[in-house]
């Protein structure tokens, strides 16, 4: 088992739920386009078991990856779950028959999604459920109270322990917090896309986790080249550098890089061990 200090340390989402800052995102366990079964189910199961063996205690998933595929593989690989493993899922979307991503935000759809996550994961209660409200990358304007209220009701029923948000803006976060506490926000943020920088800092001041997705998403060819140059100089991979930058950016940032191969998983974990010096950080800051 890897020492949790080499996984970026730990972060307390809330008393009783402490996770390694280096987590794992299960999205890539599904087939191409996050749709259908994986090419190699046995390797997907092996990846998840190695995630636990490495000491990672935070797995991000959801039922519309596949759909249902990733949660079913997680249960196959890890059930009964270790006491220190925390599964975080999300609701608010669904897939059509061609793999398209559609909103699923009615009260009935949200309730159904929570119950299906419970069933496919084999749980009586979900540690954290994120309400996804925006598009693929960015928030969509408007109130999220009607949808968030549904999850609060499910929390009161004992089906959800803690609540989070995904692809939301600062106003929507404030709106949700006026209704019930949140423990995490999952948005698009990386070394090249830092529009959420003020939000990261505001959440850190309130001890709320920020979980960036697409750590290498949306890079221009020039930005990718600059990141690659830093990685070459440090004799590591661009992903490791990007993950290390995020870990050093703020203590409330939790990482959920995904992969369907054990070798790639080990490379990602190496990013938590990489320490960037002032010159490295200055060069990376210039990318944005």
Description:
The protein has 288 residues and is of the alpha/beta class. It has a single domain, classed as NADP-dependent oxidoreductase domain (TIM Barrel), CATH 3.20.20.100. The chain contains ten helices and eleven strands. It has a seven-stranded parallel beta sheet. The chain has a two-stranded antiparallel sheet with strand order 1-2. Strand 4, helix 2 and strand 5 form a beta-alpha-beta unit. Helix 1 crosses helix 2, helix 7 crosses helix 8 and helix 8 crosses helix 9. The relative contact order is 0.13. The model has no long low-confidence stretch (mean pLDDT 96).
In short:
Helices cover 39% and strands 17% of the residues. It is an alpha/beta fold and 288 residues long. The protein has a 7-stranded parallel beta sheet. Strands 1-2 form a two-stranded antiparallel ribbon. It has a two-stranded antiparallel sheet with strand order 6-7.
Report the sheet with the most strands, covering strand number, pairing sense and barrel closure: 7 strands, parallel
Fraction of residues in H or I helices: 25-40%
At the fourth CATH level, what is the homologous superfamily? Answer: NADP-dependent oxidoreductase domain
CATH class: Alpha Beta
Task: Give the termini separation.
Answer: 36 Å
Strand fraction: 15-25%
Helix-strand makeup class: alpha/beta
Shape descriptor reads globular
Helix-strand string: EEEHEHEEEHEHEHEHEHHHH
Q: Spans with pLDDT under 50 lasting ≥5 residues?
A: none
Number of strands: 11
Major sheet strand order: 3-4-5-8-9-10-11
Total of helices: 10
Overall mean pLDDT stands at 96
Number of domains: 1
Radius of gyration: 18 Å
CATH architecture: Alpha-Beta Barrel
CATH topology: TIM Barrel
């Amino acid at each position: 088992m890897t020492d949790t200090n080499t996984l970026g340390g730990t972060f307390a989402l809330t008393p009783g739920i402490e996770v390694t800052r280096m987590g794992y995102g299960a999205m890539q366990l599904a087939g191409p386009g996050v749709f259908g079964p994986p090419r190699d189910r046995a390797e997907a199961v092996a990846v998840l078991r190695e995630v636990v063996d490495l000491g990672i205690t935070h797995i991000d998933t959801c039922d519309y990856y596949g759909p249902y595929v990733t949660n079913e593989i997680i249960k196959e690989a890890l059930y009964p779950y270790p006491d220190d493993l925390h599964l975080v899922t999300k609701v608010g979307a669904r897939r059509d028959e061609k793999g398209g991503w559609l909103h699923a935000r009615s009260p009935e759809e949200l309730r159904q999604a929570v119950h299906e996550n419970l069933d496919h994961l084999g749980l009586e209660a979900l540690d954290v459920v994120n309400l996804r409200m925006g598009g693929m990358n960015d928030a969509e304007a408007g109130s999220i109270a009607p949808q968030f209220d549904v999850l609060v009701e499910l929390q009161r029923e004992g089906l959800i322990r803690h609540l989070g948000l995904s692809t939301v803006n600062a106003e929507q976060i404030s709106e949700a917090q006026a209704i019930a506490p949140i423990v995490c926000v999952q948005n698009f943020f990386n070394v090249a896309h830092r529009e959420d920088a003020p939000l990261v800092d505001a959440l850190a001041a309130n001890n709320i986790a920020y979980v960036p997705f697409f750590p290498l998403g949306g890079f221009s060819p020039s930005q990718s080249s600059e990141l690659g140059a830093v990685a070459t100089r440090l004799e590591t991979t661009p992903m490791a550098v990007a993950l290390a930058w995020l870990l050093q950016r703020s203590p409330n940032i939790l990482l959920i890089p995904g992969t369907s191969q054990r070798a790639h998983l080990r490379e990602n974990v190496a990013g938590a061990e990489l320490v960037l010096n002032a010159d490295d950080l200055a060069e990376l800051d210039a990318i944005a």
